[in-house]
Write a structure and sequence with these properties.
Blueprint (H helix, E strand, L loop, with lengths): L1 H22 L19 H9 L1 H11 L6 H23 L7 H12 L3 H13 L7 H16 L3 H12 L6 H17 L3 H22 L2 H20 L4 H17 L3 H17 L3 H18 L2 H20 L11 E3 L13 E6 L5 H17 L4 E8 L3 E2 L2 E2 L2 H14 L5 E5 L3 H5 L2
Parallel strand pairs: 2-3, 3-6
Antiparallel strand pairs: 1-6, 4-5
Length: 431
Amino acid sequence: MRKLLVFTLFICTLILASIQGFAQARRITKPPPGTAPADNRAASVLHEDASGYAARKFQEFQSKQLPFDPKLLEKTVQEQKELAARYAAELMTRSDLSGDDLYYTGLLYHLSANEERTLELLKRFLDRDKQATGERPQHARYIIVLRSAQMNRLEEAENALADYLSKEPRKISEQVTMQNALTSAYHKTKQTERAVAHAEEAFKAAKSLQATAKTTTADRLLFLSSNTLVDIYQEMKKPASAILTVLEEVRKLAMAAPSPRLYVDATEKLVDVLVESKRKSDAVKIIEDSLIYAKASVGQESQRFVVQSLQRKQKHLRLQGEIAPEISIVKWVEQAPVQISGLRGRVVLLDFWATWCGPCLAAFPHLREWHEKYKERGLVILGITKYYGHGNRQEMTPAEELGFIERFKKQYNLPYGVAVTDTDNNHRNYG
């Protein structure tokens, strides 16, 4: 079961990393050294090959039972970009590039994170018939909106969105994503009124999608859109009633679906908003009522997940605004012994982690970045782990495991202190 969970997390992270890679705007235009002879396959076939690269590699990793490795993830994403860039460059050498070949070449540039070429090729594809309808023209307009928004070419993005909305077919999921992209772009440029207008449109479209699609993607888009809208409302100091109405609406939609995951996520966000508004007693009541609902009305197959998630949030809620519990440590690694009470007045981040935990490894680069960026301003990061009795797929004594943890810390270049305990007290006290 653990292997299945790790591989599931791996593919989800792989997809997320691919999306984030697009946003990083790395322009890969030249094929890597040692390019193979000309590839005469159709543009559509080359695109299919490149777009499926990550999934094929994941299947290979799964068959070999490889553990999650952030470096392998990064390498796979980069390889996919380079493959797409090589195919796109190959297609650009063809003298007869036109029609759908322009479309697939644009998609390859999109996959390689080359925004300028993506827009150039997809616009050329649409120029042949600006009133064209159908899956490909609409998808081209969709990508133009996303790329233009990322590049802060907001007028282009707005025009492409209007063009998309005037044609068929229109996918509600794409409408949500485009509205969210423009929300983010306007928000970054401090154009709050424009941002909130698109956020409200995204939320409206996401509600429509969730009411009909009943899929995890629909739930995710609704939660993302509602969160974004709530955050902007808070920034604009909108009345609490408007903010809470959004989240209560999402919770009702989740109950009607039913969607346990969406219900938990929306409830946790609602609780966070109440706590931020200094209404902790109301937040406590929301969790208590939600637990009663879950135990009475959530189906047996999902009830355990919902109840455990809400109970975990309940534990966290009891800690919020209170004095942080002391930590119990038996061994410190490259860190002078400290107590939480001795760190009062500083920002302290406790990272509960394990050597075998895939998501923990994925978090390390961010923790390293925050440590370097904020250590001089008072941030203290402590990596809290415990003796699990094993490491690197073999049983270990506490002394052996401590040595393994010390080597692990060096291997992943963790610049902050690590603390090891031999009980579950820290995990239990922090929920």
